Amino acid sequence: MKLYRAKDYYDMSRKAANIISAQVIMKPNCVLGLATGSTPVGIYKQLIEWYNKGDLDFSRVKTANLDEYKGLTKDNDQSYYYFMRENLFRHVNINEANTNIPDGTETDAIKEAARYEEAIKELGGIDLQLLGLGHNGHIGFNEPSNIFPKDTHIVDLQESTIEANKRFFDSIDQVPRQAYTMGIGTIMSAKKILLVVSGEDKAQILHDVIKGPVSPSVPASILQLHPDVIIVADEAALSKF
Ligand code: F6R
């Protein structure tokens, strides 16, 4: 694991955006694994800025998102499809046909999980997977458990995750209870992984992820076993080191 120390959220975003830009420049038809949530917003802003300056070209880039809430339509402003469109896709020259997100409206969970896993294989795998870190150590929606789930699957969200995500909804009752997510095996198959972490509220879990035992009770701890992981974290998130 390579650890890059950033001063603050803005610095973290720029450093991480630089790594993604390098990937796009070195391999213009690369496959980017993307994440939603608060942490990557600054990264996407930076990428849009560089695209507007003419420094980046997304025309041949393909993407696969980590996860999507089950039951939300694409036009629901809390769906991850909507998030990606608003925070990145509609601002750059990516071809929508090259973007992949689990279909939250598919009710047959087994069918959708298998379709998505296959779609990633057909892309030839992920070159660079961007990850945020949940307060409980989750990556994607792989919640603490006693196993590492391998492939894309449906999950019941934990109370702590529902609680953390309620800020985006009018009320806690509107937070979906299930989501599709890449599995830990899907994530670990990415050639390179970029984990971004910001804020003091993530300091303890980041410490456990890097220094603790590899255990499904802290899903992100599995990243210790990946051969090419870069962590970009700000000083607040690194305050327990
Ligand atoms: C988002 C995702 C989640 C988030 C995590 C951190 O696609 O898969 O694992 O990365 O919940 O979220 P934030 O960045 O909002 O703290």
From TrEMBL:
<dbReference type="InterPro" id="IPR037171">
    <property type="entry name" value="NagB/RpiA_transferase-like"/>
</dbReference>
<protein>
    <recommendedName>
        <fullName>Glucosamine-6-phosphate deaminase</fullName>
        <ecNumber>3.5.99.6</ecNumber>
    </recommendedName>
</protein>
<comment type="pathway">
    <text>Amino-sugar metabolism; N-acetylneuraminate degradation; D-fructose 6-phosphate from N-acetylneuraminate: step 5/5.</text>
</comment>
<dbReference type="InterPro" id="IPR006148">
    <property type="entry name" value="Glc/Gal-6P_isomerase"/>
</dbReference>
<comment type="function">
    <text>Catalyzes the reversible isomerization-deamination of glucosamine 6-phosphate (GlcN6P) to form fructose 6-phosphate (Fru6P) and ammonium ion.</text>
</comment>
<feature type="domain" description="Glucosamine/galactosamine-6-phosphate isomerase">
    <location>
        <begin position="14"/>
        <end position="224"/>
    </location>
</feature>
<dbReference type="InterPro" id="IPR004547">
    <property type="entry name" value="Glucosamine6P_isomerase"/>
</dbReference>
<comment type="similarity">
    <text>Belongs to the glucosamine/galactosamine-6-phosphate isomerase family. NagB subfamily.</text>
</comment>
<feature type="active site" description="For ring-opening step">
    <location>
        <position position="143"/>
    </location>
</feature>
<feature type="active site" description="Proton acceptor; for ring-opening step">
    <location>
        <position position="138"/>
    </location>
</feature>
<dbReference type="Pfam" id="PF01182">
    <property type="entry name" value="Glucosamine_iso"/>
</dbReference>
<feature type="active site" description="For ring-opening step">
    <location>
        <position position="136"/>
    </location>
</feature>
<keyword id="KW-0378">Hydrolase</keyword>
<dbReference type="InterPro" id="IPR018321">
    <property type="entry name" value="Glucosamine6P_isomerase_CS"/>
</dbReference>
<keyword id="KW-0119">Carbohydrate metabolism</keyword>
<feature type="active site" description="Proton acceptor; for enolization step">
    <location>
        <position position="67"/>
    </location>
</feature>
<dbReference type="GO" id="GO:0004342">
    <property type="term" value="F:glucosamine-6-phosphate deaminase activity"/>
</dbReference>
